[in-house]
Amino acid sequence: MCGIVGYNGSENAAEILLEGLAKLEYRGYDSAGLAVRNGTNDVEIVKAKGRLRVLAEKTNDGKALKGTLGIGHTRWATHGEPSENNAHPHISDDRNVVGVHNGIIENYQELKEKLLRHDYTFYSNTDTEIAIKLIDYYMKKYQEGPVDSIARAMMRIKGSYALAVMFKDYPEELYVARKDSPMVIGIAEGATFVASDVPAILKHTRTVYYIGNQQIAKIGKGTAEFYDIDREPIQLEAEEVTWDAEAAEKGGFEHFMIKEIHEQPKAVRDTISSFVKDGNIDLSEAGLSEADLAAVRSVIIVACGSAYHVGLAGQYVMEKMARIPVRVELASEFRYRDPILCADDLVIVISQSGETADSLAALRLAKEKGVPTLGIVNVVGSSIAREADRVFYTLAGPEIAVATTKAYSAQLAAVYALAIQLAAVRKQINEEEYHDLIAELQELPAKMDRVLEDKERIQWFAAKYSNAKDMFFIGRGIDYAISMEGSLKMKEISYVHSEAYAAGELKHGTISLVEEGTLVVGVCTQNGLFEKTRSNMAEVKTRGAYLMGLTSYGNYAIEDTADFTVYIPRTSEYFATSLAIIPLQLLGYYLSVARGLNVDKPRNLAKSVTVE
Ligand code: AGP
Fold first, then answer.
1. Which structural domain, as residue segments, surrounds residue 325?
2. What's the mean pLDDT in 176-198?
3. Residue 279 belongs to some domain of the structure
4. Ligand 1 test: best mutation among 261, 306, 384, most atoms within 8 Å of CB?
5. 411 C-alpha to center of ligand 1: Å?
6. 173 to each of 18, 193, 217, 259, how far by Cα in Å?
């Protein structure tokens, strides 16, 4: 996810563009850049690695760049590490076409090879540079205008994009196009604004056009003309934005956390699309061949917090599916206990930020011991990503809320992919089972959307329990891993003391804590364990607990025991975590809201724990 801005008017574009980018930094902030038409038929481009303030300092807050037409970009790297070279805007070799992009071009390799065959060269590692040069290629090949050239490129690009593009021979115009990535066009007197999201233009206008998928716009000074992909002119209706700036930054949601909970289907869909190619799992981008996986004797997953809970779920999935020994360790323990590792182990370090001190130390320890390492990381170019032997990037986009949700879900997708591929190379699943699992994996985002439709019931239940003092989450197997994450969400954002417990272990002491009204959440997604866990739920119910059940549609017997039940769509039991975690995220969120707490920035916590 990145932030795009564009301006065509009579004021100094660079200053307006920087202001707009500042409102979009939540969409990405590892590098930024501007391109401004300076009255000649060339552009002036300035880019900088790091937060937006670095670019602002470099351009004297935009004053050093003269011109009334320009584009800007704040980046969240998906292809190519954060660097000045990879920062947008990107420009064709003869400076004919310059542009910025938000999205993921899935067939960038194929398009790059095509352009290389036509003597194009590349200076960056980004998919965006390829898109810009593809537009240039079509403009030269067919000798047509900007709309035609962009339309031809759109026909060839697979994936998602929002593009803002300027052309050397059209010094008064800006062109935009989109598919699946957001883009809004604001119209004011004598000036037109373009942005990935409303916050960037609200200061100037509330009159906007939302161009549709595979539509193109020609942006003049206070004007916009629209075309479809067939280059036919189309009419769009202007709309008035009613949001205030703060609400707009959160996409109309009250908090980043609830916004990111709702972004989980997209985060999982984008991550899956990065490794499922033509119906097969392809881990080549993570540098993992089938031979590499076949050589792995055992897996050690090391992480902290929610990432550790992904590892717990992954252990059950990998061991059951691939029949490979898997152990999961807290990074803060692993790094000090001189673990026993073998050269044919694989140490997997899971980390959203890629900067967690304990996880980074664990990675370095594994490398000192000569053990192959793999990072599952959400931030391109982060320390763990750079130092691991191999890295599997999740595509959750920037996660602003301290409590992780969409990154956790994207990490699960990455772990499922590894499990399926390990099972295949170890001949634990046949061809049909392999493709059935992949098909089910690709169904997950839609099923996650269905779970989110049930959020009002969770909100009602959370309000009912907003004064809870103690809470237990119990489950067996994968349901225990789910309980661990549900409990952490509850603790870290609603400050309710809660504990996750292996349901079968309760009677060995902890059940003594259960008293009249204690809330216990029983997680029962694993059919083979359903009756076992349900009997544990009955045990705590006889001691006065109030029971919330969480299970798949069809397991209605749970209502004989639970006082309140939440159902999730059926899916492979391997992937149940991805659906069951959503009601628990919502429960923690709504309870925090009911208690009037700072959901996005809970007390005592940081988004990335870069110290011991
Ligand atoms: C999860 O909601 C917390 N923010 C925290 O447990 C987090 O998962 C942990 O600090 C690990 O962070 P990382 O994934 O960036 O390494």
1. 250-451
2. 95
3. yes
4. 306
5. 12
6. 19, 12, 10, 34
